[in-house]
Amino acid sequence: MSITVRPIEESEWPAFVAVDYEAFSGTYPLEMADRWREVLELDRLLSAFDGDLMVGCAGALSFEMTVPGGPIPVAGVTSVGVLPSHRRRGVLTALMTRQLHDLHENGREAVAALYASEAGIYGRFGYGRAADTLSFRIPTHRSAFTRSAPADPALRLRTATPADALAALQRVYDAVRPGRPGMYARSDGFWRTEVVPDTEHDRGGMGPLRCLIAEDSTGARGYALFRAKADWNEHAVPEGEVRLLELMASDPAAYALVWRGVLDRDLCSVVHSGRRPVDDPIMHLLAEPRQLNAIWFDDLWIRLVDVDRALSARAYAAPADLVLEIVDESCPWNAGRRRLVTDKASCEPTDAPADLTLPVDVLGAAYLGGRPLRAAADAGLVREHRPGALSELSAAMAWDPAPWGCRVF
Known about the structure:
The chain has 409 residues and is of the alpha+beta class. The chain contains 12 helices and 20 strands.
């Protein structure tokens, strides 16, 4: 079998969608492809072919993503799949390798990011688990806040139709995004097609998309997007459910008020949250934090496509002057020794002896500032040649707050 990989043409869009649908055992209505077409860029969609048959797909979104110190261009890798008939035949490797080489050659982004459908797939292509996320299951009758919870009498809470409140939602999101590594800018098309749609498929058996907005005389300061489902038990006791999809706020008082609006919803006994940051302030507001019933899982995966440019593009929390020996089997231009000087935010090739040897996926995992390097060293993935070099690099790359992407792309 000879596999070729190339960008698709406009006429091949339906076939691209069909491959993606089959690869993910799709249950969504095929008309959702019209929504994807609004945000996916045709010239960034790759397909793998076995002869004339399309057997695999991969895409990239042009994002601006916050990293420590500010925003940079990032390629958001998405729609990666292979037909079941062609699994374990090198198709995925061919797609991912071509995509990495294309990203390197076009020079638009030094960093790529993705959400993994299976956590074991992308490490072999140099992606590192750079951010984690929590989901919560909060029983509303045990959701009291501490007495020190912030409040602002100037704030009021109102309900809104999400699609009609886009300006308010965007205002809050854009205020929050610059401060949190991993969050990415959303185009108007992304808001319309990924955040506020409300078809029966989007509802997934729940109720319509709902919105709460915390605002004062200057405008919106916080919001929540959620769905609710009414239910009663055999004793006619209400046991409705709330599924929180997004909650953002630009200040602590607005954050607390929006959470209270979600937790205090009448006739609902439990709130299930989607992805929340691992340092979510709700952990400090809830009087009984065990009632969060938190589950921890992976969020963003980061790939340094161009190590020199990527490490020079972010800020650092502490001074460091180190020579790193980078191991990178997929991107040979990254392999070798680099001198990283954090005070200058410079990373350049060098012939000096290495202080540390580490694979590119470990460096990608640390890139957003949420992954200390000591555990990777304890797992045998990092070799320290100069005592203290590991702590020096780990302290320099650390960042507060923790990274988080919020919504899967």
